[in-house]
Automatic annotation (TrEMBL):
The lineage of its organism: Eukaryota, Viridiplantae, Streptophyta, Embryophyta, Tracheophyta. It comes from the Eukaryota. The keyword Transferase applies. This is Glycosyltransferase. Transmembrane segments: none annotated. It comes from Nymphaea colorata (pocket water lily). Keywords: Glycosyltransferase, Transferase.
Length: 466
């Protein structure tokens, strides 16, 4: 095809490369962004490592739906597990990743198909330095709640007054533009930077290299004050929720939500068939993400709570070996699985409660799919997400831990009964509010909504620099 102005040059689409951080919770939303960009006529290629490529593709129903290019994190055999130390892994990824990314960009340019943009996970700020050497525009992608990003930004610039270690959990932490925060609501890495210093540095370094635009997996209506405040200082654009379109728009073609799961998935159709046999809003769904490993004491308390509830449940243990010894505990009432296609389960009418660690992806899925939540935050951004769930959006309850940090069976049972309306008016109010937010989010993602407008704005930026 010839150029419209008669230059004799073929018309090509802009080429955007996507580079996520190498964990499940960062890969999925960035892949969903790639799907959106492709729908707008952008050529997208997903950058991944040899280990992740081999982990993603062996199962036929988990093929990536956008083309891939390889770079290296320096651990091609088994990724982070080959290293086992956070700081060593991050240093090696920066060193080898910078070199192999530069080689890729040079090769693409030599082949006559140079990249126009790189969208990279904000955990990898060194990508911007490499991109600039090749004249490639950059967009950083923030996979956490805007309010969480704001606290890291303010702390990075010495504008956040954090109470000293050992402060009372309810000690106020006033931050302009944010709801009333308490010490216990802050990220664990701000409360105890020494717990994992490499992660602390990683989170603060997200702002060490300002990209041409900063995309955040949130929605303007969810946290308007903080997102507007951030946009005054940084080129912030909320484009969330980055979930499969099938869960946002019934008109969208069916897209399997687990196409980039890193673990062996349970047969989704079997699990959904089991849900089909249950009454509406009757099932408790329990899942704590792809990283958390529960202490045995906490597992015992969850088991006891589920027995006392005597409600149908699905418990995603996160590891096959933990399923085998506990399937008997599920009895006839529940299902225990190593993994599930979470958005598909949450979207099912039978699910009435989501017991969650409150990672941002899971929280956003609960909100978008209209499922009340019981929050059991563990670390990182999860406490603040839980605070927003309970106190800002009013779509769930936080189950409080007792001495030793374990959430007791009675507390879990109480929270589940309340959000499922067993407790009366409070549960009905929570259900009503989560349905309201579900519609707000879908409107934002729909044509002409706030997130859609921001995404279109980014697409226009990509085209303008092509």
């Amino acid at each position: 095809m010839e150029g419209a102005a008669g230059e004799g040059k073929p018309i090509t689409k802009p080429l955007v490369l996507l580079l996520p951080y190498t964990t499940q919770g960062h890969i999925n939303p960035l892949n969903q962004l790639g799907q959106r960009l492709a729908l707008h006529g952008i050529e997208v290629r997903h950058l991944t490592t040899p280990y992740l490529l081999n982990s993603l593709l062996p199962t036929a129903d988990r093929r990536l739906s956008i083309p891939t290019e390889l770079i290296s994190d320096g651990f091609d055999e088994s990724g982070y597990a080959q290293c086992g130390d956070v700081q060593t892994y991050l240093d090696r990824f920066k060193d080898v990743g910078s070199r192999t990314l530069a080689e890729l960009l040079g090769r693409l340019a030599s082949n006559g198909r140079p990249a126009n943009w790189i969208v990279y996970d904000a955990f990898l700020p060194w990508v911007a330095d490499v991109a600039r050497r090749f004249g490639v525009s950059t967009a950083s992608f923030f996979s956490q709640l805007g309010a969480v990003n704001a606290t890291y930004y303010l702390h990075c610039h010495r504008k956040l007054n954090i109470p000293p270690p050992g402060s009372e959990p309810t000690t106020p932490v006033p931050i302009p533009g944010l709801p009333s925060l308490k010490f216990e609501d802050l990220s664990s890495f701000l409360i105890a930077p020494e717990s994992i210093p490499a992660y602390y540095d990683l989170l603060l370094n997200q702002f060490s290299n300002t990209a041409d635009v900063m995309l955040v997996n949130s929605i303007e209506e969810l946290e308007p004050d903080v997102l507007h405040a951030m946009a005054e200082s940084l080129p912030f654009k909320p484009v969330g929720p980055m979930l499969p379109l099938a869960h946002l728009d019934p008109r969208a073609s069916k897209q399997r939500a687990n196409e980039t799961d890193l673990r062996e998935a349970s047969r989704a159709d079997d699990l959904l068939g089991w849900l089909d046999s249950k009454p509406p809003r009757s099932v408790v769904y329990v899942a704590f993400g792809s990283i958390a490993t529960l202490e045995e004491a906490q597992v015992v308390e969850i088991e006891a709570a589920l027995r006392a509830l005597d409600k149908p449940f699905i418990w995603v243990t996160g590891a096959k070996d933990s399923v085998a010894g506990r399937e008997a505990a599920a009895g006839e009432v529940g299902r225990m699985v190593g993994w599930s296609s979470q958005p598909e389960v949450l979207a099912h009418a039978a699910v009435g409660c989501f017991v969650t660690h409150c990672g941002w992806n899971s929280t956003l899925e609960g909100l978008t799919l209209g499922v009340p939540m019981v929050c059991m935050p563990w670390w990182s951004d999860q406490p603040m997400n839980a605070m927003f769930v309970e106190e800002v959006w009013g779509v769930g309850l936080r189950a409080r831990a007792g001495e030793g940090g374990t959430v007791g069976r009675k507390e879990i049972e109480r929270c589940v009964r309340e959000v499922m309306a067993d407790g009366g008016e409070k549960g009905r109010r929570i259900w009503s509010r989560v349905q309201k937010w579900k519609e707000v989010i879908r409107t934002a993602a729909d044509k002409g909504g706030s997130s859609d407008r921001n995404l279109i704005g980014f697409v226009e930026m990509v085209r303008d620099k092509h």
